[in-house]
Automatic annotation (TrEMBL):
Coiled-coil region: none
Matches recorded under Gene3D superfamilies: NAD(P)-binding Rossmann-like Domain
Domain NAD-dependent epimerase/dehydratase: 3-268
Keywords per UniProt: NAD
UniProt xrefs under PANTHER family: EPIMERASE-RELATED (PTHR43574)
Family annotation (SUPFAM superfamilies): NAD(P)-binding Rossmann-fold domains (SSF51735)
Species this chain originates from: Flagellimonas lutimaris
InterPro entries hit by this protein: Epimerase_deHydtase (IPR001509), NAD(P)-bd_dom_sf (IPR036291)
Protein name per UniProt: NAD-dependent epimerase
Domain of life: Bacteria
Amino acid sequence: MKILVTGAAGFIGFHVCKSLLSHGHEVLGLDNINNYYDTSLKYARLGMLGVAEANASIFNKLSSSSNSHGFRFVRLDLSDKESLLALFQDEQFDVVCNLAAQAGVRYSLENPSAYIDSNIVGFLNILEGCRHNNVKHLVYASSSSVYGLNKKVPFETSDSVDHPISLYAASKKSNELMAHTYSHLYGFKTTGLRFFTVYGPWGRPDMAMFLFTKAILNNQPINVFNRGKMERDFTYIDDITEGVVRIVEDNYTKQYDSKPLYKVYNIGNNNSVKLIDFIEAIEQKLQVKAQKNMMGMQPGDVERTWANVDPLIKDYGYSPNTTIQEGVDAFIDWYREFYNV
């Protein structure tokens, strides 16, 4: 298939591109390479995808680069409607995997307009591109943040998600509603994936795994929010990638046409891990005791997340099987090699 992956220079997008290429698909990666975090990491990911001399100097607006392995890259912002729709018309994608978004709960308190431009306007442009160019299936990133103040665990997609507590969460719930509308009106499949705390090699520098590892190795204290009384459904990147790719490739299966036009799934580890236990796994690998700066609850945060992924197991054979210690070890091995620590 010819597949568009947005957010290709991002953490999950990079891994999804890599997997799809290994399966023989033609992949066009799109990213605006914004400066939400260190862009050198984004360029390094593109380099791993075979984009020659991946650095800021060669990527101007709408410039592209390709290699012999079926991967092409275009630098483009989803809010640029005219250029995005032209790309859809020129390429005629079979499937679109929209992983581009302005991420981060806490950052949405500082720069709310970035979330509207990318997550609302940008997503609408993606839907319009699919609608007008016969895209068979749109797979898109939602977030566990949509569950907001829900107390019942594990979280199920049948739960009410009418109480988001961050603009990021509200933007992701909006994406689900927009996708439902377009599936209903225009008859193409949309599948939303509520990601639960993804971590692993090539991860984002603003995520806990990265922040904790960096601080401990530099003999600096780590900020432990809610005094460590947090629980997260930490999910290793390889498990996430395997699930995403199964859904993207679903067009090949006999069951594809019998599945509903619109569906939302949780995609997580099917388990809730205490933050303190997660920190202990890092300490175990580094053989260093962390200096903990115990802090209160942060605005927009929730105390606990836990995904019920039974529907994804039933429909796609999804099977997260990476233990926390295995995942933490793999991330730290990558971190030490990449940063020469």
